[in-house]
């Protein structure tokens, strides 16, 4: 589906007033300064320079060059565009002329006539991509993908279930969105989703105002939901936003919008007509681009189906209907679901995008991870989800299995409750921070699938600052410092607290034992309390954990969003653990509309310093997203939100 990117015909703002660099997940490609003050940039980070119309031109580059030009023209176009981009002020029409010229220049020469048709049904795969060739020659059996998962969805109502991985993965495959993260091909041939830039999904045009405060999307007419056949319109998105607001969904994305609009989230959205939607910001903000790339932005759900289903009960939001139904506007629809056993996707017959290779995807519930590993090794399933770090590590040497690992900011944390003793005292929080054996946990629990963190922003995110971290001391010094702080807080004889862990996350039990042993050396007794996932999740939502172990991943690669959503006074983190630092919140709000990048990151740096000193949480590390799939499955794209888009995958029979 083609999407054009336009800019309003008004003079651009001064180049120095717009952002010069942002981070996406990929590889370093521009020699600009690193994310931390004295730490080199991560190996797989891309630092991209954006200035003035660069943003619009670069977006046009991704869409026109990578998505719509013939493969042989891509490098030529990119090289020319790269040279063109060295000029700070350009009209977008120049890009259009380049595209037209290159299309003409790269048109294939007239060759010999094709051989006569012999009548044999043999697919000609010459000149095709690997995916196209696989699709042309695949059997129906080849086009079925089987995925072993640890658990079923408790409901198909995303607003009732929360954003846990199985639900959000279902959403991104079944629900169509205005836009989606742009896709980058790395030097090694692997594909990643860009955390700060996006490309079309259902929209076919977008207009960005020159001051960056209005983003207008337009839908093509005639697209339909499945199975109802209702037309997809801009009102479907507004219904989605209204439904989330009225059902009091945990405000992760809504807080991001509030940072951008300085208003209640719904006031930032406007339906112009049935096919046109606009996002309005109060001022230019650096979080708009990552916001647009977020996997929960822009779903167009079948509003009429939900309203019709709930009409008899006076339920505008169709809550009973939503428990067992998720009408499709995306590449797949839910064909069948047997609770706690299986769920099957099939390709949406109303989908107008590229045809998925896999027209059936069967998710089978296999509760024990060891069983999922055995099924994958035996070739009985094509993918195994929710494996432990050790299991992934053991599978790396299996020739029949391909392990995918994506370096993301999925934070390994120990949230501690500021509303209850003993953690309502900052000195106790600091004492525990000194005692945690961080390197031991990363090395002996995560098996190369995680790295250290040194504060509330992981090193994968541009703008993190670890220079304020004081908690790495030699063991004996750390114990002495912790005992000193505990004595000042009135706990000279030691203390005791509960550490709640999720039974569904095997690494948590291993981490808890290491923490229990380390803290005992300073007179702290840690009672490890394993909990079923439902009870554990309820404790998070109700703020009843004294302490817990968790992995949390904000989907937007902006330091302010990481700190705001996990540690802000009116955020998810406050409900979880009672954390609140008004001074840090004010710095984050100010940074949200600070145009000068250096000034913005100074504000973020100070906010990080405040949270580190406050020991707001205990930051242990950042785990990588890992996935194990059959060696014959190709086309995997690592998206920033870690959710697999199954329509990109295909079976490569040559493997």
From TrEMBL:
Domain Solute-binding protein family: 198-573
Keywords: Membrane, Signal, Transmembrane, Transmembrane helix, Transport
Source taxon at top rank: Bacteria
Predominant subcellular localization, coarse grouping: other
GO biological process: peptide transport
A GO CC term assigned to this protein in UniProt: ATP-binding cassette (ABC) transporter complex
Entry-linked Gene3D superfamilies: Dipeptide-binding Protein, Domain 1 (3.90.76.10), Dipeptide-binding Protein, Domain 3 (3.10.105.10), Periplasmic binding protein-like II (3.40.190.10)
GO MF terms, alphabetically ordered: peptide transmembrane transporter activity
InterPro entries: SBP_5, SBP_5_dom
Residues spanning the membrane: 89-110
Subcellular compartments: Cell envelope
Family as reported in the entry's similarity comment: Belongs to the bacterial solute-binding protein 5 family.
UniProt-recorded name of the protein: ABC transporter substrate-binding protein
């Amino acid at each position: 589906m083609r999407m054009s990117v336009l800019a309003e015909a008004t003079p651009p703002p001064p180049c120095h007033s717009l952002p010069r660099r942002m981070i996406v997940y990929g590889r370093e490609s521009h020699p600009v300064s690193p994310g931390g003050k004295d730490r080199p940039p991560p190996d797989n980070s891309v630092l991209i320079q954006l200035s003035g119309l660069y943003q619009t031109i670069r977006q046009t580059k991704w869409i026109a060059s990578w998505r719509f030009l013939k493969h042989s023209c891509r490098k030529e176009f990119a090289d020319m565009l790269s040279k063109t981009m060295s000029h700070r002020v350009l009209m977008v029409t120049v890009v259009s002329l380049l595209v037209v010229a290159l299309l003409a220049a790269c048109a294939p020469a007239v060759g010999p006539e094709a051989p006569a048709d012999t009548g044999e049904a043999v697919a000609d795969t010459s000149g095709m991509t690997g995916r196209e060739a696989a699709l042309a020659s695949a059997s129906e059996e080849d086009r079925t993908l089987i995925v072993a998962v640890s658990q079923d969805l408790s409901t198909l109502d995303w607003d009732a279930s929360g954003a846990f991985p199985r639900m959000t993965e279902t959403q991104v495959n079944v629900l169509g969105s205005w836009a989606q993260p742009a896709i980058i091909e790395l030097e090694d041939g692997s594909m990643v989703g860009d955390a700060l830039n996006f490309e079309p999904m259902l929209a076919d045009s977008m207009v960005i105002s020159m001051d960056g405060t209005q983003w207008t999307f337009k839908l093509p007419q005639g697209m339909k939901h499945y199975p109802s056949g209702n037309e997809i319109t801009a009102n479907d998105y507004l219904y989605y936003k209204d439904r989330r607001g009225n059902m009091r969904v945990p405000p992760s994305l809504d807080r991001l919008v509030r940072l951008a609009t300085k208003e209640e989230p719904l006031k930032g959205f406007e339906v112009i007509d049935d096919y046109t939607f606009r996002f309005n910001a109060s001022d230019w903000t650096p979080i708009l681009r990552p916001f647009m790339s977020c996997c929960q932005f822009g779903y167009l759900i079948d509003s009429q189906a939900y309203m019709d289903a709930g009409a008899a009960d006076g339920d505008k939001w169709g809550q009973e209907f939503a428990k067992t139904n998720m009408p499709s506007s995306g590449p797949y629809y839910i064909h069948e679901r047997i609770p706690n056993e299986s769920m099957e996707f099939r390709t949406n017959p109303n989908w107008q995008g590229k045809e998925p290779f896999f027209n059936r995807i069967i998710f089978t519930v296999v509760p024990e991870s060891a069983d999922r590993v055995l099924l994958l090794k035996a070739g009985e399933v094509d993918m195994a989800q929710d494996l432990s770090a050790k299991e992934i590590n053991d599978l790396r040497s299996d020739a029949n299995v391909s392990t995918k690992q994506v370096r993301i900011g999925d934070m390994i944390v120990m949230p501690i409750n500021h509303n209850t003793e003993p953690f309502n005292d900052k000195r106790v929080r600091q004492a525990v921070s000194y005692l945690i054996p961080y390197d031991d946990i990363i090395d002996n629990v995560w098996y190369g699938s995680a790295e250290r963190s040194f504060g509330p922003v992981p090193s994968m995110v541009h703008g993190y600052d670890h220079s304020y971290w004081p908690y790495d001391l030699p063991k004996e010094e750390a114990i002495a410092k912790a005992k000193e702080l505990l004595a000042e807080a009135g706990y000279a004889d030691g203390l005791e607290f509960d550490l709640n862990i999720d039974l569904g996350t095997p690494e948590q039990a291993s981490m808890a034992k290491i923490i229990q042993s380390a803290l005992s050396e300073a007179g702290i007794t840690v009672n490890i309390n394993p909990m079923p996932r439902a009870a554990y999740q309820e404790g998070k939502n109700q703020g009843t954990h004294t302490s817990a172990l968790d992995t949390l991943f904000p989907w937007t690669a902006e330091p302010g969003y990481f700190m705001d959503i996990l540690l802000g006074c009116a955020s998810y983190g406050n409900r979880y653990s009672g954390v609140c630092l008004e001074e840090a919140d004010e710095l984050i709000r100010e940074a949200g509309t600070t145009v000068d990048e250096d000034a913005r990151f100074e504000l973020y740096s100070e906010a990080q310093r405040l949270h580190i000193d406050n020991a707001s949480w205990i930051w242990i590390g950042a785990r990588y997203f890992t996935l194990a799939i059959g060696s014959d499955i190709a086309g995997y794209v690592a998206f920033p939100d870690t959710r697999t888009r199954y329509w990109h995958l295909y079976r490569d029979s040559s493997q």
